[in-house]
Every structure is written in C-alpha cells, then in structure tokens.
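User: I'm new to structure prediction. If I give you an amino acid sequence, what do you actually give back? Let's try with this one:
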Amino acid sequence: MSAARTYDCIGGTYGQTRQEDSRLARLVLTELRGAGTVVNVGAGTGSYEPTDRFVVALEPSPVMLRQRPTTAAPAVQGFAEWLLFRDNAFDAAMAVLTVHHWTDQSAGLRELNRVARERIVLLTWDPSSEGFWLMRDYFQQFLEADRKRLPPIEQLLRFLVDGRVVVVPIPHDCADGFLGAYWRRPWAYLDAEIRAGISSFATCQDLSPLHRLAEHLDTGEWQRRYGELLNREELDIGYRLVIGLPNRLTVQDHVPESSRHDQWECRRVDGPSTRSLPGPMTF
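Assistant: Good question. You get back a string of structure tokens that encode the predicted 3D arrangement of the chain. For your 283 residues, that looks like this:
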C-alpha cells in the first residue's frame, strides 16, 4: 500500500496522537540552522517544520493535509519521487520518519539532492538496531518488516557528501506518538487511538500479542522484565538523524515527471483552502 493510501486510511487522528516533540524538534532545527528556505518532504501534519523561515511542505495524503494547522507552512500534495520544484530551489530539504513509506526510495533521495542547494536532513530508524522490548518480545513482525522497508544508514550516506549520523535518544514522555515513543509507557500500546497513529499497528493483521502484553502488565511480568527502564529519562532505540550535503552525482539523468509534463497539476493547500496550480512549481 502506498504512503498516501496508508495515511488516507489511518491518518484521521494523526493530528492528535502525533504532536511535535520539542526536544526532537531542537535536534532537527539545529541541523537546519542557516537554511533560509526549506522543503519538508512527507510533511504530514506539519511537525518539525521551522516557523522562522520560508518553508514549503509536500505530502501525498489529503487526509493528512487537511489536519495541518492554519498557521502551518503552505503545502503541496505530491510525492517524494517526483518533487514539484525546480533544481536547487531550496537551501535545505528535510524528511522526518517518511523515507520508508516511499515507493521508490532511491528516486526520492535523488529528488532531495536535486532540489536542495546546501543540506539534507533525514530522521529515520536504523534497521541494524535491535529495536526495543515491544519489537523484540511481542511484535517481532514489526522488527522484521522495518528491517526490510527502512534503508540501511550506509545507503542513505551514499546519497550525501560529508554525511554524518546523530543518535536521537527518545525521551520517556515523547509527545510524538510514533512506534518507539512509548517505550516507558507500555500501557499506551493498549490504546486503540494511539495505535491508530502508528503505521505498524494500523496495518497489522494480528494484534493478538497485545493480549499477552496486557496480561504481563496486570501480573507484573512486564515490570519484572523491564522495570529498570522506569528509571531512564531517555533511551537509544535506533532513531537517527542523517545529515549531509547534496550529492549531485546521484541525480545524474534523473528527471522527475513534473519536469517532463507541463500539464502536470498539483494540489496546493494553504491552511484550510485548496487550489490547483500548474506544475512544475517555480519555488
């Protein structure tokens, strides 16, 4: 299922359960310092977008676009593999927990290189990580699936010049309800509304391990196994920032559909209003 269809199906409450976490935001914004113009690819409802500079968001799902606050940056409906912008249109490109949803990850990464002049900032999960207790002991299928669909860090670095990796520890009270956010709040995974905002759960066919988790919480077995986590303020469970300069060699002859077809039409969302614009856009 494509990212757009996935989030059209599961993203109805995303704006409530996936709030921006201020500590993660500081890490992202630190890496975007000095960038006067930014494109946020796979932008969702607008979390982690800078508010003090020119930003354009791109998101494939209309359901997600409708949940963007009226104060959020202007947004365009489109796909990472075919960005609607001219070459070198922005100082920086950012993509937060989205690359694994792209139909063609290499094409999307080449497109980031094409439109970014100075910097690319990616927040992702390292598939070589062991994950955390939920993935290891209850939903091993999540770990297996994520190791298949998330690109290795080494692959991301090949698309960058002078690339580097920053460990992103997840705070125990993380406000952004992605899969690993509740590592110290296990009961949260029993809440259907919270699970609805986590793609791994929302697309999972077998939720029976939740019964075992509930039983372990009731009997104290979870506390016996993982009680030491209750004293931790943050935990490294595999999330990483990958930052670097655009690698022009990866772009080569890749020409997006938006550049080949003048009649390509995109949907732009400015707060609650939506209108069609001819593509490609000339930011």
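You can read the tokens as a compact description of the fold. Here is one thing that stands out. Residues 3-126+149-174+236-278 form a domain with the Rossmann fold fold (CATH 3.40.50.150).
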